[in-house]
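Quick log. Single chain, no ligands specified.
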Amino acid sequence: MKLLLINPNISDSVSELIRSEAQRSASPGTEVEVLTAPFGVAYIETRFEALIGAYAAAQLAAEHHTRFDAVVVAAFGDPGLTGLREALPVPVTGLTEAALASACLLGHRISIIAISQRLQAWYREVVESYGLGARLASIRALDRPLASIGGVQEDHAQALKVLAERAVDEDGADVIVLAGAPLAGLARSLKGQLPVPVVDGVSSAVRHAETLVALQPGTAQRGSFSPPPVKLNCGLPPAIARLLDRSA
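-> predicted structure:
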């Protein structure tokens, strides 16, 4: 089995965190490849940045998906996931979708711990889009400058742990989701240190992607996730144009 994880941000240091956690989480025999966006921002905080990241993810997916059994959008907020699910002939999931799916199997009320205050409104919208707004206990986030996006865990591990503890004690969280690729692997470090289960997006996405491949559920040929209809297009990167043509 071969899994493609796409980092829609341009940060190589974050891609390395994704790769390390994905390789630790993957089943024996599963091959993991991580690709970094060729353009965009260091890390996504806003809806507009997510739009840019979604296009970067689409370009990489169009260029490389034929070598893989499943694709993971490796950024919290899942930029471009639903569009890729329409266009690609292989299963697609993302860090948010997969982490929430894991959390739903572990408890009822879910709290998300994030790295930036600016993320909160967008994250809430994403959770609501998955139909889980009623189960969201809270979103708590760091409120301090980030010197290095790849070093968030080392720089702010204790503060993130405190936020998680407050989510349990004050918000009634049954499960904690550590949000974002920069926190990949932190759940392993915090294992046993928090009073409720802790979920990591990268490890969840890898395992759920493996399950989807193993289940062989087929792809949509009708309905809202059927391939985009063929129509005139102009100015698109060649791989995306080919993907649209293939969607016939």
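The radius of gyration is 18 Å.
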